[in-house]
Amino acid sequence: MKARDLAVETFSALDANRGRSFLTVLGIVIGISAVIAMTALIGGINKALVGELGLSQAQLVYININTGTSTTYNDVDAMAQNLTDYEFMLGTSYGSTEATTGTKKASASVTGVKPTYFRAMSTKFAQGRPFTDAEEAKGALVVILDKNSVKMLYGDANAKVVGQAVTLGNNDYTIVGVTESNGESYVGADSVSVVMPFNTAATRVVGNQDVAQIMGFAREGSDMDAVVKRTENYLAATYNIPDDKRSEELYVYSMKSLIDSVNATMGAFSMLMTVVASISLLVGGIGIMNMMLTNVTERIREIGLRKALGARRSDITKQFMLESICLCLLGGLLGVIFGYLGALGLSGLASAALASQGGSTMGIAPVIDLQTVLTATGICVFIGVVFGWYPARRAAKLDPVESLHYQ
Q1: Would strands 213-218 and 125-128 be described as parallel, antiparallel, or unpaired?
Q2: Residue 250 phi/psi, 5° resolution?
Q3: Confidence of residue 14 (pLDDT cuts 50, 70, 90)
Q4: Torsion region of 180: left, alpha or beta (phi above 0 gives left; psi -120 to 50 gives alpha)
Q5: What is the DSSP string of 15-57?
Q6: Which of 110, 283, 335, 398 sits between 20 and 30 A of 368, alpha carbons compared?
Q7: Residue by residue, what is the 3-state secondary structure of 181-234?
Q8: ∠ at Cα 119 (134, 140), nearest 5°?
Q9: Residue 340 and residue 14: Cα distance in Å, rounded?
Q10: Collapsing DSSP states into helix, strand and coil, what is residue 100?
């Protein structure tokens, strides 16, 4: 039988039982939809977390020393000289004050940093620029806000505020830049996030030159686990921290480990959902087999007539196998479409829930790639072959004489 004739016969057979065919593939549609929806949604959540929390900076190492003694920038510079794994190291300080613009007032979380901070965090600016080394050195009264803070203080996240003044405590500061988000340092829904030069924060807000947290930017290609270990050993020796006190007085972790942790968690959740969806696929496959067996029974006389006219066993097998595979592919196609639409709806609900509960602007967009679609297609073909094989072979083995006499 020619391929064209085989395709025409397959379409005719399926078209003759549209309702039954559609109901039969529902199991496949539900299973594939669940796989696509969960895969796309989890991929979207993972991507959003990476972007919102700054997890894309796999070269970053965070260091906290809790020995009871203060840490200054001289200590940070000494670390940078002795720990050659890092391209540079920097410290941050934290404080709080009140921000005022016209009639708007809000509590402000202040972060004091050096200009290298923006490179380490790969900060994206919606407006303006980062402050310079010269501005940091002289303690200039300049600040950088994020879009959330701009919205709280000026009513519009996209308001043109560069060059305008904002009062922090008793001093007026000039806004020189606006970042895309506050992913670097999350603050509550009732606070604004302000980044200013380290020396400015130390003098005007914090009141001292102490470093609250240290960040190291490892050289490209570094083994981050080894870098963390060498950093821990150096700091333990420098600050005379015994082994049994390391977990209490020293905290060193890399963003790569956090990325790996997030990926592992999302991967495990995705695997769990895939297993659950596989049950639906199994049920759908059984439904396909049941329909094909019914078709064979209903078309025994047709099969006998085809064999009497010269059809071979392989022709009969191909026809019923193709019908089974086409049913599964139809279910897979509908499953991909409904799965993506489902993921789109769920991601919208998740984004809205985050925005309403925590003031977060993290947008979750479903991520679906070609590999996922191809995998779903392969699964459908596999189900069609596995569950269509027995009915097809049963049809092919029917005796033509008995088939023609079947009532």
Answers
A1: unpaired
A2: -140, 130
A3: low
A4: alpha
A5: HTTHHHHHHHTHHHHHHHHHHHHHHHHHHHHHHHHHHHTTTT-
A6: 283
A7: CCCCCCCCCCEEEEEEEHHHHHHHHHCCCCCCEEEEEECCCCCHHHHHHHHHHH
A8: 25
A9: 26
A10: strand
Q: Contact 318/1 with Cβ under 8 angstroms?
A: yes
Q: Model's pTM, two decimal places?
A: 0.62
Question: How many helices, marked H, and strands, marked E, lie in the chain?
Answer: 15, 10
Which candidate, 385, 250, 367, places its Cα nearest to that of 322?
385
The yes-or-no verdict on residue 273 having pLDDT over 80 is no
Amino acid occupying residue 197: P
DSSP run (H or E) holding 176: strand 171-179
Rounded Cα distance, 262 and 180, in Å: 23
Distance CA 376, CA 32 (A): 7
DSSP notation for 120-170: HTTPPEEEE-PPPHHHHHTT-SEEEEEHHHHHHHHS-TT---TT-EEEETT
User: Which tens digit of pLDDT belongs to each residue from 42-66?
Assistant: 778 777 766 665 555 678 899 998 8
Given CA atoms 41, 43, 45, 51 in this order, what sign does their dihedral have? negative
Instruction: Provide CB contacts within 8 A for 88, sequence distance 6+.
Output: 80, 116, 120, 216, 217
Residue matched to tokens 């890092």: 86
Q: What does the block give as tokens for 385?
A: 């072959």
Question: Residue 215's pLDDT is what?
Answer: 92
The two three-digit tokens of residue 170, written as one number: 């008793």
Distance CA 54, CA 210 (A): 24
Q: Cβ of 264: how many Cβ atoms within 10 Å?
A: 10
**Cβ–Cβ < 8 Å for 61, 216:** yes
C-alpha 108/C-alpha 145 separation (Å) is: 10
287 vs 183, residue with greater confidence: 287
DSSP state for residue 398 in the 8-state scheme: S
The answer to whether residue 99 scores a pLDDT higher than 70 is yes
Q: Can you read off the two tokens belonging to residue 181?
A: 């988000």
Asked whether 328 and 292 are in contact (CB, 8 A), the reply is no
* Residues in a beta bridge with 217: 60, 88
* Cβ-contact 104, 154 below 8 angstroms: yes
Could you tell me the pLDDT band of residue 374, with boundaries at 50, 70 and 90? confident
